[in-house]
Specification:
Layout lengths: L5 E2 L2 H10 L13 E9 L2 E8 L2 E7 L7 E4 L9 E8 L4 E8 L3 E3 L2 E2 L5 E5 L5 H4 L3 E5 L8 E5 L4 E5 L17 E6 L1 E2 L5 E7 L2 E7 L6 E4 L1 H10 L2 E4 L2 E4 L2 E3 L2 E3 L2 E7 L14 E4 L1 H6 L2 E4 L4 E5 L10
Parallel strand pairs: 4-11, 5-10, 17-24, 18-23
Antiparallel strand pairs: 1-6, 2-3, 2-13, 3-4, 3-8, 5-11, 6-7, 7-10, 8-9, 12-13, 12-25, 14-26, 15-16, 16-17, 16-21, 18-24, 19-20, 20-23, 21-22, 25-26
Length: 308
């Protein structure tokens, strides 16, 4: 299934910012770390959640620029204020509404949110994620610290850091690290860095709510096919010789989209870019440290990932 999160208009984001206050956080107050178990549906991490009296699951989606984005098809909400319209990446139109924040719990613990939250009707996504799909937990819920995403254990671990990104626990040992890269965090975007596909430099970002997408201009597609680093089967692509963070990766499978074409729903369409998401992260546990601006790819059996 194609990625379902909404590509919001800038005007919507401005309306949300003007109506919100406070800071959301999935971490437990006063604790150095918090472990949250997750289920996997369509490769995506799904966290047990409760919105007021409605229990279900929310997707942990670092590509969602709001703390929470509720599915009002599954969550009873007052009508709220219409603040704009957007589109899901899979093409469905989404009317975005603003509501006074309900009580939201994740894995049994109430989380702080802004005073107002947004919703969309994501009923179409329930075919994949179930009738208890309550919406998305987005990037602002974790970007004040660090987290490790470990599919093998099915655990999202949140870590407290200082302002410079120093972890309150010992960092991964050198033997645990596969790749280490720095990223920029542009407001409203995913952590973004650079990579090479063979000898071709491309933008690279990471997104837990996307299975993985490759955006290519036709001339770039032809070049990668010619040099053997790209193999295409229908609308899927397999990549070899992808290098970043001091490591090389082969056999990466991603959805293929023509850059600048009708299915390119990015706010900045037209450029070549690689988005690594859930399909990659399932096989490669990762440590995301936002104050430090780093993502570390770990060995699956890294000691850092042991239960705490």
């Amino acid at each position: 299934m194609a990625q379902v999160k909404t590509m919001l208009l800038l005007a919507i984001a401005a309306a949300i910012a003007s109506a919100s206050c406070g800071q959301a956080d999935l971490s437990a107050t006063g604790q150095d770390w918090r472990e949250i178990t997750f289920d996997v549906v369509d490769d995506k991490p799904m966290l047990a959640a409760r919105v007021d009296e409605t229990s279900g699951r929310m997707m942990f989606d670092t590509g969602t620029p709001e703390t929470v984005f509720l599915n009002r098809d599954a969550v009873p909400l007052p009508d709220g204020q219409v603040v704009g319209n957007g589109f899901a990446a899979s093409g469905q139109p989404i009317e975005v509404r603003l509501h006074q924040a309900p009580l939201i719990q994740v894995d049994g613990m109430a989380i702080a949110t802004e005073s107002a939250v947004v919703s969309g009707d994501f009923g179409f996504a329930e075919v994949m994620f179930g009738a208890d799909f309550l919406g998305f937990i987005g990037l602002p819920a974790v970007q004040d610290g660090a987290f490790a995403l470990d599919y093998r254990r099915g655990v999202l671990t949140l870590f407290r850091t200082d302002d410079h990104g120093a972890l309150v626990v010992p960092p991964p040992a050198a033997r645990d690290v596969v790749a280490n890269l720095t990223f920029a965090l542009i407001p409203g975007e995913q952590p973004t860095t650079g990579a090479f596909i063979g000898s071709l430099p491309v933008l690279l970002d990471f997104d837990t709510g996307d299975s993985g997408t490759l955006y290519l201009r036709p001339e770039t597609r032809a070049r990668l096919l010619a040099d053997g680093t790209l193999t295409i089967t229908t609308n899927l692509a397999s990549l070899s010789g992808v290098t970043f963070g001091g490591a090389s990766f082969d056999g990466l499978t991603v959805r293929l989209v023509e850059a600048g074409g009708p299915n390119d729903k990015r706010p900045w369409p037209g450029s070549d870019a690689l988005r690594l998401g859930a399909a990659f992260l399932m096989d490669h546990p990762s440590l995301w440290n936002f104050p430090a601006g780093t993502i570390t790819i770990l060995h699956p059996d890294a000691g850092f990932l042991a239960p705490r």
